[in-house]
Write a structure and sequence with these properties.
It comes from Lactobacillus hominis DSM 23910 = CRBIP 24.179. One of its GO terms (molecular function) is transcription cis-regulatory region binding. Keywords: DNA-binding, Transcription, Transcription regulation. This is Lac repressor. The chain is about 40% helix and about 15% strand. By secondary structure, the protein is an alpha/beta fold. The protein folds into three domains: about 45 residues, lambda repressor-like DNA-binding domains (434 Repressor (Amino-terminal Domain)), CATH 1.10.260.40; about 130 residues, Response regulator (Rossmann fold, 3-Layer(aba) Sandwich), CATH 3.40.50; about 140 residues, Rossmann fold (3-Layer(aba) Sandwich), CATH 3.40.50.2300. Strands 2-1-3-4-5-11 form a six-stranded parallel β-sheet, covered by helices on one side. Strands 7-6-8-9-10-12 form a six-stranded mixed β-sheet, sandwiched between helices. Strand 9, helix 11 and strand 10 form a beta-alpha-beta unit. It is globular, with a radius of gyration of 20 Å. The two termini are about 20 Å apart.
């Protein structure tokens, strides 16, 4: 496992700077280029990137993201998936053309296939524009069997229950969630985040669901901080345990809890999703649901290549195993 010291040495910055960047400390005076460099090095040291070399001409695949480059490094989950896709493309002798939100899709015309990261985050207009290129296509981190597209998804459904069972095992029945929604006009009872739906359904079965214990952010550290800080400023009593939709929001939540002198995990336990590199460097280190996002990205290239080479007509779903990694933010 890479250490903060390893990252700092390669990035030519101090260990303190690396620690503050990985904990999304926006008060740190460092430019976005340096932040991105640190995140990239952290991911590079976390994964083996052995590459093969080919002599034949490279074909190109398009990689479409729902966010811009600045948003991408606020949630390393998507960065790591995209990084894995680029690694897998290199191994399979493809060039990759990355297209962020707001950028032109015209280069897709020259691609032999398309990998789209996410699904619900896109407007219908953007999706229709992608579909119009009529290329072999798969989606990553979105179950798109119903719309008729092959996909690669993590098995977060089973892990949501495992997280809740872990809290219950340690006597924590008052369980809430810091859920995510990109829209500010969300319906709190029917958030589209599938993690929330699994959370709500399981706790309802157990007779433990309480809508007052649900807080909503927009998948960023700032929004996680704001959601809990606003509740605490209003003297709202927090539940004993929180399921958090991603590591980025969990890091923001930790900051809010510290400022209000609440101990983690003694007063509030947290288990988040994605287990990005930042999770292990948080203070305290985050318990998190792990999915090998780099491997998921690589796998998506293999799936796309099978579709291209074998001319598959029917959509299919590939599910990647997940597991709960327990660290300091939960009672274990």
């Amino acid at each position: 496992m890479a250490t903060i010291k390893d990252i700092a040495k390669k990035a030519n910055v101090s260990s303190a700077t690396v620690s503050r960047v990985l904990n999304y400390d926006r008060s740190l005076s460092v430019n976005d280029s340096t932040r991105k460099k640190i995140f990239q090095i952290a991911e590079q040291l976390h994964y083996d990137k052995t590459k093969r070399h080919y002599k034949r001409k490279l074909k190109k695949i398009g990689v479409v993201l729902w966010c811009d480059a600045a948003q991408e490094i606020k949630d390393l989950y998507y960065y790591s998936i995209r990084n894995g896709i680029e690694n897998g493309a290199s191994l399979q002798n493809y060039q990759s053309q990355v297209i962020y939100d707001g950028q032109s899709l015209e280069s897709l015309a020259d691609c032999v296939g398309i990998i789209v990261i996410g699904y619900q985050q896109y407007s219908q207009k953007r999706l229709q524009a992608i579909f119009s290129y009529k290329k072999p296509m798969i989606f990553v981190d979105a179950d798109t069997l119903d719309p008729g597209y092959s996909c690669v998804v993590p098995d977060f459904h089973a892990c949501t229950r495992q997280v809740i069972d872990h809290f219950l095992k340690h006597g924590q029945k008052d369980i809430g969630m810091l859920a995510g929604d990109l829209s500010s006009n969300y319906d709190k009872e029917n958030l589209i985040d599938f993690r929330f739906q699994d959370f709500k359904n399981y706790l309802t079965q157990l007779g433990l669901f309480n809508l007052d214990n649900v807080f909503v952010g927009q998948f960023t550290p700032e929004s996680g901080y704001n959601a809990l800080n606003d509740a605490l400023d209003k003297n709202k009593k927090l539940p004993q345990a929180l399921v958090v939709a991603n590591d980025a929001m969990a890091i923001g939540a930790l900051k809010a809890l510290r400022q209000h002198h609440l101990r983690v995990p003694e007063d509030v336990s947290l288990i988040s999703f994605n287990d990005t590199t930042a999770a292990e460097f948080a203070n305290p280190a985050l318990s998190s649901v792990h999915v090998d996002t780099n491997e998921m990205g690589k796998l998506s290239v293999c799936v796309l290549e099978n579709i291209i080479e074998n001319d598959f007509k029917e959509a299919f779903k590939t599910v990647v195993k997940t597991k709960v990694i327990l660290r300091e933010s939960s009672i274990n």
